[in-house]
Design goal:
By secondary structure, the protein is α+β, with helices and mostly antiparallel strands. It has 2 domains: 112 residues, no CATH class; 92 residues, Translation Initiation Factor IF3, CATH 3.30.110. The protein is built from 5 helices and 3 strands; from the N terminus they run ααβααββα. The longest helix is centred in the last third of the chain and has 41 residues. It is globular, with a radius of gyration of 24 Å. About 3% of the residues have low confidence.
Length: 222
């Protein structure tokens, strides 16, 4: 690949520091390569924020695909679990039911059945809440949530909104192998990706700060 091409957008890198697609300083190229675990020759400054954002999005997506391996249970003191308490975690979800859901619910109630639409909405809210509990526990360095409680409420009589709230205690399970080999492997994978996401956020902020500083210094020199 020509050294005059941006390794990300493949456009020609400008020769002037403040031109369109101006070259990123070698220091920032090294930071981006270390962050993305690549060994590219160069980037234009325009692409650096995009690279960081894309890397963050991909990591968050990968985490979301396996984070359900983290247990969320209602038991307060699980038998044979050896753990450290990290703190309380909460999750909230508000879902609109809509007029058609209200009509279907009324018909279901009239015939003594269950409202499939309402049940689906509530289940969706529960899933979102549990995902939040898992994500917040992971952010604390945890790998499980115990003593989970979940509540439901309707926001007013005419809003058509259902609120689902969940809370629990984030813990770090020491004898994680008790969960089984497959789940243990996936939880370790989640923890590694969460650590990587934190690195993206910290190193990404450093890159953006250095870009701003670099541009400012260049402008001040004119």
């Amino acid at each position: 690949m020509s050294k005059h091409l941006c390794s990300y957008c493949k456009t020609v890198i400008g020769k002037k520091l403040l031109s369109k697609n101006s070259p990123a300083p070698d220091e920032l190229v090294s930071l981006i390569n270390a962050l993305t675990r690549k060994d590219n020759e160069g980037y234009c400054q325009t692409c650096l924020p995009t690279i960081i954002k894309k890397e963050e999005e991909n990591t968050r997506r990968a985490i979301s695909e396996i984070i359900d391996a983290i247990p969320v249970i209602t038991i307060h003191t699980p038998q044979s679990w050896n753990y450290e308490i990290l703190g309380i975690v909460t999750g909230q979800s508000t879902t609109g039911t809509g007029i058609f859901s209200d009509i279907e619910s009324s018909i279901s109630d009239f015939f003594g059945g269950q409202s499939v639409t309402y049940n689906a909405k509530i289940a969706e809210g529960e899933t979102r809440c549990f995902s939040q509990l898992r994500a917040k526990a992971s952010a604390l360095g945890g790998n499980a949530v115990i003593a989970t409680d979940i509540d439901y409420s309707e926001l007013g009589t005419s809003t058509g909104m259902i609120m689902v709230c969940a809370s629990g205690t984030a813990i770090k399970l020491m004898n994680i192998e008790i969960l089984g080999e497959e789940k243990t492997r996936r939880i370790h994978r989640v923890q590694k990706m969460v650590n990587y996401l934190n690195k993206i956020n910290s190193d990404g902020a450093e890159v953006i700060g250095k870009i701003d500083s670099f541009i400012y210094n260049c402008v001040s020199g004119y």
